[in-house]
Protein 1
Amino acid sequence: MKFVISFLATEFNLLKKFWSEKEILREKQGIVGTAEVCRDNVGGAIYLCETYNKIEDTNITAIKQMRSPYGILIYQNYIYAMINRPGANNGDLREEYILKLSMDNLTEVNKLENRLFSHSHSLTKTSKGYMVASSGLDLIVEVDEEEKIVWEYWFTDHGYQLTPLQQNRRIEKNIDHRKYDYSTLHQTTHVNSAQYLNDEERYVAAVLFHPGELVIIDKKIKKFEIILKNMKCSHHFHNNDFQTHKSKNNKYIISNTFANKVLLLDEKFKVTKEIGDSNTLNWVQDAIYTSRDTILIADSNNNRLVETDMEGRIISTWLYDTNFRIFQVCEYQ
């Protein structure tokens, strides 16, 4: 099994120190996030890995050092990474772009930019280009290969106007938002995962961090439905690309991050299985179905990947550097 990991930080001690000083609502209200942005160079990297029998036997086959890669996707022998980092000083232009890397040697091919990329998290491929969860703007935006906007969905226009700081948010949509920083507590949803459900590209699944919801947007009627709620700091939503007889009832997967759980969902979004608890996992950053009928979990605060069977029984684990902060893991063929 081959897979790619994005580490948003390889100097996590700097980011951890920043969070400990600036998370003003976490201790008293349990709200995760800051009202400022961290400008330290926290590093970052893309790792190419391979494992044969168990995740504990993982070999690192290539490394690309870079600052703050978030969402990743694999398409036609290329890796695409969502770069998200603030300028060195307040008022400096943010670096927000999709970076295209050759799978063969991890050399940079080109990058794609857009004025609506802001604190961007997830990245998925579409028939027209790319879909980005622009977390800083509470926005999902789809752009084509020429960097033009082909679709956008602003959650502040659809009932999510109030930030965790109890402030009403209003966004000027026509400016270049890379000139500004919008920290987590100034966002209303912190949407961090967005993708089409199928090739029809009518329905979009989105994960909302602050309210802890999975929503499905119907592009045709421009409305959404809340499918799951009451999650805690939820993250990545993925399809099951490797459905077999063992996983035939499991169509989707989502990370209920702060609850330390992975949720397996059927085709109607009903939870079929909850994997993990506070005794086994600590901050589930990501989780995917794998080609060997297992679940691979990014157990972030324990600095490890955990591989389980479909019932949640741990098969093996792989530890990585304690000063790394993982964002996403992606298997490829």
Protein 2
Amino acid sequence: MKNIISLLLFIIPLSVFCQPKAKPEIRNINCVNDGKYAILFYDLENTAKNDKYFVEIKITHANGTVIKTRTLSGDAGVVYGGLQRKAFWNYKADSVGLKDDIFVNVKATPVPEIPLAPHLLKSLIYPGWGSQKLSNNKKSLALGGLSYACLASGIILNIASAANYEAYKSSTDFSKVDALYKRSLLQKNLFFALTGVASAIWVYDLFNVFHKRALLLKRKVPVDNNYYYKNVEKQSLSAVSKPLFLNTFDVVKPPKPELIEASVKFEMPEL
């Protein structure tokens, strides 16, 4: 009997922990007009508060025609998971007047983890390599070729400059002394110029890695063909509301509270 009880005490908690996690989804889409904004409500159910999504909201007529919503703010764009998300649409600023049913389409794509250190390390080794995967542009690899060409040319010129300077110091032919010195000086200056260009390319590409990563995380650049966003696109959530009536001409105001006269009289006790 004790063995059976012990087995049950082991199996029951195990079955609780082994239950599949509820799938994230978008629910409870609604729209309310407060006179200035159309407030768009939605829930990111079964998501954690630290989960980050890029939320795209599209409003359409019943026939599918898209309504311009350039002034969306609030929980649109990069949004954390959780319930009672609110986006604000300033329909007056968009010069939109409606008195009709609308549909609200909400799509939430997980913001991918884009590591910084590996891209910086690649760009330190070869300029353009670290930013190539971020921008999906192989042309950035040309930066590495240019920087190494400048660096190699500079080193060759520096070696030649040193050799000409030694020849200048040891020469007894006064007709060649001036030419050797000038050639050595020119090669030294070219060495500094070329290595400076190579260094500038390296620094530029390292800054470019920081910049492109930040733009990607905020989706300020196209992400359709980006490596990281392709990997999370299949985890995207989407939902469409039921028909929601939106009247931007009249605002439904809450009723004013009525004052009710008290029927109970209070008398001061006599002293």
Protein 3
Amino acid sequence: MRQVGMSGMRALAQLLGDHTGARVGVSDLQVVAQGASGRCIVRSSHPACQGIIGIYWTAEREDNGAFLPAADGLRRAGVPVPEVYARADYGGGRGACLVQDLGERSLLSMKGAAESELGKAYRAALRSVHALHEVQPDWDLQPPFDAALYRWEQDYFAEHLLGTHLHRPAAVGFSERSESRELAQWLAGQERSAVHRDFQSQNIIMCGTEAYLIDFQGMRYGLPEYDLASLLYDPYMEVSAELRGELLNDALTLYGGRINGERLQACSLQRLMQALGAYANIGYHRGNAWYLELIPTGIRILSEVCAAISSDAPAAPMAACIQNALFSH
């Protein structure tokens, strides 16, 4: 309860009580997730609160308050997201809501399942994110992917993965290299649509045969290929090359040829750089060593993506730059 404090827990207990008509106390709440982003997610052991998740947030991150408008808009558009049962605005960027409890069968929880079962879940996830990509949002999104944001991801990778974790001299001035700037500018010049921004296995909940999306408060305009890269090259899961190829073919069919291979390569580099930067940052600076265990897998996948990029592709100079930074001492 350190990040949100007792006031947040009391607010959730009150909201649950108001919604259900039951007497719900803080002692009835169990924290499901609480990160360093000013959000707390709880379940209640009270019988009247079954099937409900409580979320409380502060203004610590600008996108925390974007959850409700996105949930409402996505649900209106028919995208599989949790239903919102109740909400409260406490001012100063603080708020809370009660949403549908979808259970704990995330895509990540299926790691190690038979590939046929995984394939069904991944294909359901592709259908859900495709529906999101088709939405024309009538609510405010987060600032769009532009050259500055792509370069921020590159800096994040350089500072935390190359610098803090690997102690590579290439960390200095990494995003100022011509390869970095040119890739960021090329990506920023591509046609954009609404994207999830963090479309990885922890944020996909399987409910029956349908894949529900969560943690979509970071939605913004960007490239659909970024979300696809987040799913297909997720270091949490290590999808086999065979299944990844099948899923990519399914995506090409689903999107009617709108998915571009060169953009997918470039987005894969960007997403993996962002993820590796996050793993190192969270592992070293937020005390969660589990993320450090993901780094070798992430580096291996990033290196494989780099090696697969043809020499005449837009991402080729950046791929060579990454390989050099990773493996040259």
